[in-house]
Amino acid sequence: MAGHVAKFLESREEARTLDVKELAAELSQWQGARLLFERIQPELRLVICGAGHVGASLARLASFIGYRATIIDDRAEFVTRDRFPDERIELIAANSWTEAVRKVVGNGHGVAVAVVTRGHNEDEECMRALVTTNADYVGLIGSKRRTTIVIDRLRNSGANEEKLKDIRAPIGLDIGAVTPEEVALAILAEIVAERRGGEGRPLSIWRRQ
To answer: 50, 25 in Cβ contact below 8 A?
Structure first.
């Protein structure tokens, strides 16, 4: 049974049913029964570094689909209730990106993080904090060139190579996004796909093969 449980926990499934005879053939009196394995996990969380147009759109969309969103910025005027009236969105005005990110993300279990700040320096400060955590998902906005510069700096400073390989940079799925709202959708789509084990392909692709 332990092997079946381990496989379920390694998968991305929310629930799975198995026949008792598959798990323990010796339990003859239970051969017709089935067991339900259900994943119990913390509330879905998304931490957003940067409260500009993309970050704001991402926080609102994430809250709408059921994530507990936290948005961090070092500009206090960008994280106010006037901009984010939704009380479900946690607002953090950071004196230090590093300290704020580490405090909010914690060990990273059950947490997705999108770094969408306004510049290289802010990106790098957030990413230095994040590579010391075990966040489920870390994504960095920007062009291939910009994100490569940040990741190379982290590598040169001794960051763990496996952690660097896991960074989604540039962040999001390619849906041709242009507006901040579309970019937010592309980011959240990748986060959901990563969590659920989706491939990000059109469901109708089989019709054209």
So the answer is: no
- 64-118 pLDDT, tens digit per residue, is 999 999 999 999 999 999 999 999 999 999 999 999 999 999 989 899 999 999 9
Chain segment 35-55, per-residue pLDDT in tens? 777 777 667 899 999 999 999
pLDDT digits (tens, 9 = 90+) for 141-159: 999 999 999 999 999 999 9
Instruction: Give domain limits for the chain.
Output: 2-38, 45-196
Q: Are 188 and 62 in contact (CB under 8 A)?
A: yes
Nearest to 159 by CA among 121, 187, 127: 127
Cα separations in angstroms, 23 against 4, 16, 26, 38, 206: 7, 13, 9, 16, 35
Q: Of the candidates 83, 113, 131, which has an alpha carbon nearest to the alpha carbon of residue 188?
A: 113
**Residue 116 belongs to what H/E stretch?**
none
Measured CA to CA, the distance from residue 137 to residue 156 in angstroms comes to: 22
CA–CA separation, 166 and 136 (whole Å): 9
Please give the torsion angle defined by the CA atoms of residues 22, 28, 33 and 38, in that order, rounded to the nearest 10 degrees. -50
Instruction: Name the strand (E) or helix (H) holding 22.
Output: helix 20-23
State the fold for domain 45-196.
Answer: Rossmann fold (3.40.50)
pTM score, whole prediction: 0.84
